Amino acid sequence: MTDKSINECLSVLRMRCKDLGIVLTEEQIRQFEIYYNHMIEKNKVMNLTTITQPMEVVEKHYLDSLLVVRHVDLSREISILDMGTGAGFPGIPLKIVFPYLRVTLADSLNKRILFLDEVIDACGLTGIDTVHGRAEDLGRNKNDREQYDLVVSRAVANLSTLSEYCLPLVREGGLFISYKSAEIEEELRTAQKAIRLLGGTKSRVEKDTIPGTALERSFVIIQKSQKTPAKFPRKAGMPGKEPII
Fold this sequence. Notes:
The chain has helices at 3-18, 26-42, 54-66, 91-97, 110-123, 135-138, 159-166, 185-190, 192-197, 238-241, and strands at 79-83, 102-107, 128-132, 148-153, 170-180, 200-209, 216-224. With 245 residues, the chain is an alpha/beta fold.
C-alpha cells in the first residue's frame, strides 16, 4: 500500500464528508491516517476486520460510522457508548470528527481493547475511554447502567438481543441507535416486545446511503423513556440464546 493511495482515499473522505455537513481539518485527516495504518498493521496478527483496502475502509468504516450525523444531533457534548465496538467503529470516527463528545468503547475481547488504547494514544485523543466486558455485565454495573445519553452499535445480532444489550445502558430520555442493513422492518416489528420491556418507547427507522456510493444503511433509533427493570439484562449468554420475542 503506497502513501499516495492512502492520501488519495483520505482526499475522497474529506470531499464526501462535506455531503454530511462535516469539514475535516488537517489534524483530523492525520488522525484518520494514523488509525488506518494502525488497523492494517494490527490486522496482520489478529482479526480486526476483513475490510482492508483504503477506499473500502473510507466508505464502509469511516463514512458508514459518520452517516448517523444526519439522524441525531451531535452538535453538543453528550456521552456515547459504542457497544461491541470491535476495531473501533463507529466510536473512533465519531470522536475524531466531534472531539467534544465523551466516548466509551466497549468490547468483550481484551485484545481489541488493547489495540483501541494504542490507537487512542497514537491519535492523541482525549475524553475517550475503553471498557473490557460483556454487555450483560456492563448493564448491571452501576458505573455504566443508565449512564449514557446515546448508545450506538454496529454489532451483528438481532435487534431484540441488541436491545437487551444496549437499552439498560441508556439513561432515561436517551437514545439507542443500531446500525442495520437496508431491510429491517420485520426485525423491528419482532423486537417491539423487548424494546417495550426494556424501557424503550418510540422507535423509528431512518434509511440512508453512504455519500458517493450505492451502499445502503438503516438506522433503528429507539428512545428510552422509562428505567430498565432490574432483571434485565439477563445473565451472560441468555439475550443471544433466548431473545425476548
